Amino acid sequence: MDISFYGAAREVTGSCNLLSDGKVKILVDCGAFQGGDFLENRNEHTFAFDPKELTAVMVTHSHLDHVGRLPLLVKGGFSGYFYATPPTVDLTRLILLDALEVMTYNSRKFGTPILYSEIDINNVMAQFKTVEYHEEQIIKTVSGQEIKFKFYDAGHIFGSAFIEINLSGKKIIFSGDVGNAEVPILRETEKLPNDVDVVVCESTYGDRLHNVQNKRQEVIEKIIKSAIDRGGVLMIPAFSVERTQELLYNLNDLIQHKKLLPRDIPIFLDSPLSIDATEVFRRYPKYYDEEAIKFLQAENDLFEFPGLRVCYNKEESKKINSTPGVKIIIAGAGMMNGGRIMHHALRYLSDFRNTLFFVGYQANNTLGRRILEGESPVDIFGEKISVRCKIEAVSILSAHADQKKILEWLNNSGHHPKKIFLNHGESQACDVLRDKLFSEFQIDVTVAEYEIPLEV
Ligand SMILES: [Zn+2]
């Protein structure tokens, strides 16, 4: 039995892991490769395996780098089930439709290919089967083989899971992405089960520790207050799923509960995808953590508060420009590689009174990363724009566990797994984490390489 990696091997995108015992073939995630441009041309390549031969596909969570190639599996002849939690299913639909919109735009503008259609996305949705956390699932193959599997809360984004698969007498865990500690709305990452043979573990922050000196809410409050004091515009490029909802929840708490921010400053949520994703959060309060459930009981809505203005269509978005004075704009894309944030950046980056506040990981080659590294002027829609506004960035808001949390999660009070395969991290992060794990646990740790099977 082995696991092969068709993405996220010594890089952070394109998650696609194939567990095979020769007869049963289970794919965990099938995400898109994402470089500086929205999608890379590697997404166009045909799979090195035959989608028709897959027994099942399991989806850890709805980020594009974990679901972006699902429609290509259906196009390639996969006719079985996709398994995921209910929020992941709903969010995946939004993410894939958004990807299609961006691909269509890019195709018109740069002649890049559109990899799948709305029909393909609908076919994916029709093949989804929802799975609740902790409920043991059994797949019986025609040859009489049994595969048992279970989803656990990964605490990474809404609906995210790590997955336990029992096949041919071995227990294998796919971490998906492991969540950061103390994230609002989400429950904490669950403990790893005992007696695990292999864990395929992400390593995004395998070589780093988050600064946990300051509490998340306090950090947000401080940055927003200072941006308001400067008398300008505060731009927050935010990922539409999860980060935006966490921010809205934090803002709601600071304004309504704690009364620490002024109630009359307009806060624009300028992203149709964020607005739709927020509806998915509202649909499933049963997955909230205790604090969010209490908040919901007290306030009736986690994401609605004085000052918030949602901008769904383009006209509403354009009106933001004509709103004078201090304002907060939350808009995608989170790494400034497209989306409505680009229009605001064009308008507001060059004014020293304004603030640009990064709340997420900025990948190599993205505009966000280049601004963070001090590039100025930057090119936006063919114009050279000087970056004179204040730049703020915090890693405490990351959706990923840091090295310390990954070590604690894998250790599980001494019951660490027999083998660990590391994926979903740049080379340096994987290598540092491998050496650290080996010195802590003295076990077999291997960094996944593209298309090279590792024996379970
Ligand atoms: Zn993720």
Automatic annotation (TrEMBL):
One Pfam family named in its UniProt record: Lactamase_B_6
Entry-linked CDD domains: TTHA0252-CPSF-like_MBL-fold
GO molecular function: hydrolase activity; RNA endonuclease activity
Domain (Metallo-beta-lactamase) ranges: 13-239
Top-level taxonomic group: Bacteria
SUPFAM superfamilies registered for this protein in UniProt: Metallo-hydrolase/oxidoreductase
SMART domains (UniProt xref): Beta-Casp (SM01027), Lactamase_B (SM00849)
Domain Beta-Casp: 244-371
UniProt entry keywords in alphabetical sequence: Hydrolase
Keyword Acetylation in annotation: no
PANTHER family on file: CLEAVAGE AND POLYADENYLATION SPECIFICITY FACTOR FAMILY MEMBER (PTHR11203), INTEGRATOR COMPLEX SUBUNIT 11 (PTHR11203:SF37)
Protein name: MBL fold hydrolase
Organism the protein comes from: Candidatus Magasanikbacteria bacterium CG10_big_fil_rev_8_21_14_0_10_36_32
